[in-house]
């Protein structure tokens, strides 16, 4: 009888250890899957992944993407400033990029205050600003560095807006 009880005890210990191991492995897999899933929800995952690498929290991912978008918008604004005289589309783009920086700054402040509705409003406005910039170039059939930057900014802004919808 003692042998049978020992066997049952060992079996229970092995089963419990296996259950704990499975739980730990599955939680790590779920965490990795969640990280990959953040960008899989976006329209442009290849632009999303480098910005949120290693981040699994949607709020942090959105915040980091807003910061990156702000920095990239400032670079595009500097590029537009170089060419705005004599080109109405670049002048319009310069103005809308200035508005986008304002909107992104407010979106960043809103996320810190945990005001998701305001953040989404400001992100939507920024994406709209990029769209106005891009449309002006399309209408005049211009292709230049400012237009190319605005296209990428609109895509990243769209991703950022999608990430913001994952915040709970």
Automatic annotation (TrEMBL):
<feature type="signal peptide">
    <location>
        <begin position="1"/>
        <end position="32"/>
    </location>
</feature>
<protein>
    <recommendedName>
        <fullName>Pectinesterase inhibitor domain-containing protein</fullName>
    </recommendedName>
</protein>
<dbReference type="InterPro" id="IPR035513">
    <property type="entry name" value="Invertase/methylesterase_inhib"/>
</dbReference>
<dbReference type="InterPro" id="IPR006501">
    <property type="entry name" value="Pectinesterase_inhib_dom"/>
</dbReference>
<feature type="domain" description="Pectinesterase inhibitor">
    <location>
        <begin position="30"/>
        <end position="163"/>
    </location>
</feature>
<dbReference type="Pfam" id="PF04043">
    <property type="entry name" value="PMEI"/>
</dbReference>
<dbReference type="GO" id="GO:0004857">
    <property type="term" value="F:enzyme inhibitor activity"/>
</dbReference>
<keyword id="KW-0732">Signal</keyword>
């Amino acid at each position: 009888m003692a042998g049978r009880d020992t066997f049952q005890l060992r079996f229970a210990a092995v089963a419990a250890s296996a259950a704990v191991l499975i739980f730990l492995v599955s939680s790590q897999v779920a965490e990795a899957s969640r990280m990959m899933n953040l960008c899989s929800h976006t329209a442009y995952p290849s632009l999303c992944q480098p910005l949120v690498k290693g981040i699994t929290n949607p709020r942090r991912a959105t915040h980091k993407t807003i910061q990156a978008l702000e920095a990239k918008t400032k670079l595009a604004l500097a590029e537009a400033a170089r060419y705005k005289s004599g080109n109405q589309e670049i002048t319009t783009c310069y103005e809308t990029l200035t508005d986008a920086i304002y909107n992104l700054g407010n979106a960043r402040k809103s996320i810190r205050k945990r005001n998701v509705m305001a953040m989404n409003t400001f992100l939507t406005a920024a994406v709209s600003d990029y769209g106005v910039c891009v449309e002006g170039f399309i209408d005049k059939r211009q292709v230049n560095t400012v237009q190319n930057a605005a296209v990428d900014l609109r895509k990243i802004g769209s991703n950022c807006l999608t990430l913001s919808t994952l915040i709970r």
